[in-house]
Design a protein that fits this description.
The protein is of the alpha+beta class. It has 13 helices and 13 strands. The strands form 3 sheets. The chain has an 8-stranded antiparallel β-sheet with strand order 1-11-7-13-5-4-2-3. It has a 3-stranded antiparallel β-sheet with strand order 10-8-12, with no helix packed on it. Helix 5 packs antiparallel against helix 6. The chain is globular.
């Protein structure tokens, strides 16, 4: 099926993923901050469900030509992995270690078409990063509690996996990922963190069991952990979440770059010399004094059209 065929498909992709909900209902009631799970036969996804690589891990590993990430059992998380070739990955999987095949759309054109058509229906900015990730988890495998800076649409392909989810009231709408076994959060997260992050899943977390054909939307920032009760395979459509801060700062940068003074080197900004540092401070103060005029030149309609 060509991209043109997909664009003219009678059933929008969000409709297929979240039936019995329509894509319009999903966007109005769940996207981008409320989770949703829909159960049903995998076959409703048509050619995607029939893709041979989804039903044969050895074939998927053969098709995927990048090094495979293998989650180390001590951390059970993506921040603690090794990268190995496909043959070694298959052996480690058989020994009980989970595999992560990132950016798999590069090798599976149909997956790439779904990935980008879903992004189109979601109305994401053109600079949003979209990736397709396969997670192969052996029985007992899974992820420790964490939240992501991306939004995820999870298609359970094979096996049964238990998800535990909870809204993130401690750090809403985070712009970076963090896992409970990672140590301190990144400086960016810490800059707007107003309370301590928990050491275990929040009380009242919801437990959801995904079976083949189940589709789960996990919003950005949601706490979640997973546990496979048997050998499983899941396909994640993962989308970065450009914020208003990202959109406006990018537009403002383009505006400032038109002025040769803003394109000049930020000379002396890291200098230990008090004279150079002081001159830098003076220069920056002059530029900031004029910044409001540049901001006022920004046009919302133009930013939306170009994002």
């Amino acid at each position: 099926m060509s991209l043109m065929d997909l664009e003219s498909s009678e059933r929008p992709f969000l409709d297929q993923l979240f039936t019995p909900h329509s894509g319009r209902e999903f966007l109005a009631e769940y996207w981008p901050t409320r989770h949703l799970v829909c159960h049903g036969p995998l076959e409703r996804l048509g050619e995607l469900a029939a893709l041979p690589e989804l039903h044969d891990l050895e074939r998927l590993l053969h098709t995927y030509r990048n090094p495979v990430m293998v989650a180390l059992p001590d951390r059970r998380d993506e921040h603690s992995v090794i990268r190995v070739e496909a043959q070694t990955a298959a052996a480690l999987y058989r020994s009980g270690m989970a595999l992560i095949l990132d950016s798999a759309e590069r090798y599976l054109p149909l997956v790439e078409q779904w990935l980008h058509m879903v992004a189109f229906e979601l109305g994401l900015a053109r600079n949003a990063v979209a990736r397709a990730i396969f997670y192969a988890s052996p029985s007992g495998g899974g992820n420790s509690p964490h939240f992501d800076a991306n939004a995820n649409i999870v298609v359970q392909v094979r096996g049964t996996k238990r998800w535990t989810l909870a809204p993130n009231t401690q750090l809403p709408l985070p712009t970076d990922r963090w896992a409970m076994n990672m140590g301190p959060p990144s400086p960016e997260l810490a800059s707007y963190l107003e309370q301590e992050l928990p050491e275990q899943m929040p009380e009242g977390a919801e437990v959801i069991t995904l079976e083949p054909g189940s589709v789960l939307f996990v919003p950005r920032g949601y706490w979640h952990s997973t546990e496979a009760s048997e050998d499983t395979l899941a396909l994640n459509f993962t989308y970065s979440q450009p914020t208003w801060a990202d959109v406006v700062s990018a537009a403002l940068r383009q505006q400032l770059l038109k002025d040769v003074r803003w394109r000049a080197l930020a000379d002396g900004i890291g200098s230990p010399d008090p004279e150079r540092s002081g001159a830098c401070h003076t220069r920056l103060s002059e530029l900031l004094h004029e910044l409001q005029a540049h901001v006022l030149e920004l046009e919302a309609r133009k930013i939306v059209e170009e994002s």
